[in-house]
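Input record, target 12 of the design panel.
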């Protein structure tokens, strides 16, 4: 079994790190769907762009997604009408439908073969409560004019109490879709740098992105397509985003796999789609088991639950690939796309896609590239991070930040008795070292890696992620390797390496 995403089976070319200072018109930070699409749209218009990526291109959430391309974001439209009114709810639907069309248009422009196929998207329920929610959602579909509604039958191998669909949505292979855009950028002399982490943006007449190694890219505009905005203090993004981690598995099956893409209304979530491999093998993709990042002790259990679900309903548990990743949700569930703050109109953020970033990330690229070009965009106001907070935002702000405060205190008070010596090979845990909380991991050769568990973002205490073998922060989702190197932000600095007393 591959403990890697199905989409990352493809080799993509590597790019060098930035080793000197550069200038450009636009600096794009982040090589996922948002950053690559933004760079593509701007370069197509003749802009001089530099693309910076902290790790490898498409190794962020985009390489670890389920890749449904749809406007059906769970049961969201009844909520959006109640929170924002009918017109804005309709605008949200249209924005995502436009993104789907843009994805098709880009495939035509670059002659991309990315296993794109039109599929209906379904949300189904298995309880009466779920059924009621689906019926409310159906009313919202009617009010907005969504191309879909309640369906009587679904092809699933278990009883459902109701189901609702949106017609003519899609699924694809995200890396096959985005890699040709990277090649286009290269052919159009766009400098691309990997293993180049942006750590600051200095403001003046122009904006200078400073990398961790101390080089800079100076430009008129900066796009933070870094998933979590790495400069999150301006605009207080750390207090306005909720981070959730979820799990996916791929399994070959001889059973009939239903056409269409599915998600349930209830918890725990189960997300289903299919994929036909290069060898022509039918694979079932099952996702779910989401939890707040860094707040679950036994993450291996999440994969096991998806596996037993697959066995129960699809008669297969032969997992070929398993992967997990995390995504961010804003306080009102509508992404933040646009200028980071009123005082900084040429630095943009695109975040909070609520696990629907194939369309949301694409529309973000369109909105931001239009703003940079000075063109009107019908969705700019809806997604603006500067929108006035409503009641929903205020309520979720309190909930989110109470949870962060609770995790901060819990981490500081927690006392563990385990000593690093007691770890088994391949095991990681929070231990006591020289009388203090520390993180320890023992590799298969018996070498022990010790890190300070205080997160370099805002000081919460990181926890061990058993399945992914990483140190994950329960406050805003930063993740670190066993040596303490940053895997994903908002943190930009590594965890401090520790030594045992008497060791140098
Ligand atoms: C389990 C799961 C399933 C999902 N399934 C779906 C789905 O079916 N359909 C759908 O529409 N959406 C889905 N999503 C959501 C979607 O995958 C994401 O919203 C989307 O991929 C985010 O893209 P992005 O480009 O914004 O971020 P990423 O793909 O994470 O790219 C950001 C990049 O920025 C880089 N970076 C970060 N900080 C810095 C820095 N300081 N300097 C330089 N580079 C930096 C990172 O290394 C990363 O490569 C899913 C999400 C999850 C977690
Ligand atoms: S991610 Fe914010 S404190 Fe760790």
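The sequence produced for target 12 reads:
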């Amino acid at each position: 079994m591959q403990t890697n995403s199905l989409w990352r089976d493809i080799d993509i070319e590597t790019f060098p790190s930035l080793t000197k200072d550069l200038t450009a018109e636009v600096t794009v930070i982040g090589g996922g769907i948002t950053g690559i699409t933004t760079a593509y749209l701007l370069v197509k218009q003749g802009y001089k762009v530099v693309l910076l990526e902290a790790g490898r291109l498409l190794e962020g959430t985009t390489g670890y997604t389920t890749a449904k391309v749809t406007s059906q974001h769970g049961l969201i439209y009844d909520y959006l009408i109640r929170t924002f009114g009918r017109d804005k709810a309709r605008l949200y639907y249209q924005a995502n439908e436009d993104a789907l069309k843009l994805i098709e248009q880009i495939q035509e422009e670059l002659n991309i073969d990315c296993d794109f196929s039109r599929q209906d998207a379904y949300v189904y329920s298995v309880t009466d409560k779920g059924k009621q929610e689906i019926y409310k959602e159906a009313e919202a579909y009617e009010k907005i004019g969504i191309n879909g509604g309640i369906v009587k039958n679904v092809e699933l191998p278990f009883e459902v109490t109701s189901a609702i669909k949106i017609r003519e949505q899609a699924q694809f292979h995200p890396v096959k879709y985005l890699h040709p855009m990277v090649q286009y950028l290269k052919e159009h002399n766009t400098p691309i740098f990997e293993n180049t982490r942006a750590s600051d943006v200095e403001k003046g007449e122009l904006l200078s992105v400073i990398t961790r190694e101390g080089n800079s890219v100076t430009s008129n505009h900066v796009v933070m397509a870094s998933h979590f905005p790495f400069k999150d203090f301006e605009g207080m993004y750390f207090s306005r985003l909720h981070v959730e981690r979820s799990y996916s598995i791929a399994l070959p099956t001889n059973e009939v796999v239903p056409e269409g893409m599915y998600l349930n209304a209830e918890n725990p979530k189960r997300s289903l789609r299919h994929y036909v491999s290069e060898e022509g093998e039918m694979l079932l993709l099952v996702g779910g088991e989401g939890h707040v990042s860094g707040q679950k002790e036994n993450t291996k259990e999440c994969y096991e639950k998806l596996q037993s679900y697959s066995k129960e309903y699809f008669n297969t548990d032969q997992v070929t690939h398993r992967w997990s990743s995390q995504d961010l949700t804003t306080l009102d569930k509508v992404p933040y796309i646009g200028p980071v703050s009123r005082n900084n109109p040429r630095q943009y953020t695109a975040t909070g896609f609520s696990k629907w970033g194939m369309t949301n990330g694409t529309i973000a690229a369109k909105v931001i590239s239009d703003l940079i070009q000075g063109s009107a965009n019908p969705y700019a106001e809806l997604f603006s991070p500067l929108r006035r907070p409503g009641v929903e935002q205020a309520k979720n702000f309190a909930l989110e930040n109470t949870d962060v405060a609770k995790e901060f205190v819990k981490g500081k008070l927690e006392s563990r008795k385990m000593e690093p010596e007691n770890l088994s090979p391949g095991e990681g845990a929070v231990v006591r070292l020289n009388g203090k909380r520390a993180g320890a991991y023992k590799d298969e050769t018996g070498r022990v890696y010790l890190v300070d568990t205080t997160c370099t973002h805002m000081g919460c205490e990181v926890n061990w992620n058993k399945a992914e073998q990483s140190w994950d922060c329960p406050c805003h989702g930063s993740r670190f390797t066993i040596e303490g190197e940053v895997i994903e932000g908002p943190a930009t600095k590594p965890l401090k390496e520790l030594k045992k007393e008497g060791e140098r």
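Residues 149 and 164 are 5 Å apart (CA to CA).
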